[in-house]
């Protein structure tokens, strides 16, 4: 039962975070990390190939009852928590990126979902 709830929690969180990454490309998120980055969108896209592969592989592994799915679930949940605090930190500093209702909504939604996902994953791992 808990694994079914985790599967759907993972899927919902993955959809929100992938959509956030699409939003990140629009806002040129790489400039938040390194304003002098010469790779721009090319580097951003390159790092997203393994990231998206891992997210999708984690969902398949979770469905198949593999340990890898639980480990990736922890990383996905931690990524959502990090994204929330990272972007709201920059918003509070007056950065214009992600300062619209849909960008903020995705970040706000991912925080409780990510916390729940991490907690449920840990419960399953240690039971």
The average pLDDT value, as a whole number, equals 95
Strand content of the residues, in percent?
Answer: under 5%
- How much helix is in the residues? over 70%
Query: Radius of gyration from the CA trace?
Result: 15 Å
Count the beta strands. Answer: 0
Major sheet summary line: none
Whole-number tally of structural domains: 1
- What structural class do you assign from the helix and strand content? mainly alpha
Quaternary state of this entry equals: single chain
What is the ordering of alpha helices and beta strands?
A: HHHHH
Distance between the termini: 13 Å
| Low-pLDDT segments, ≥5 res | none
Shape: globular
Q: In DSSP terms, counting alpha (H) and pi (I) runs of 4 or more, how many helices?
A: 5
Overview of the structural elements:
By secondary structure, the chain is mainly α. It has one domain (2-125). It contains five helices and no strands. It has helices spanning 2-26, 30-33, 40-63, 67-92, 101-125. Helix 1 crosses helix 4, helix 1 (2-26) runs antiparallel to helix 5 (101-125) and helix 3 crosses helix 4 (67-92). The protein is globular.
Secondary-structure blueprint:
Elements: H1 2-26, H2 30-33, H3 40-63, H4 67-92, H5 101-125
Helix pairs in contact: 1-3, 1-4, 1-5, 3-4, 4-5
What descriptive keywords fit this protein?
mainly alpha
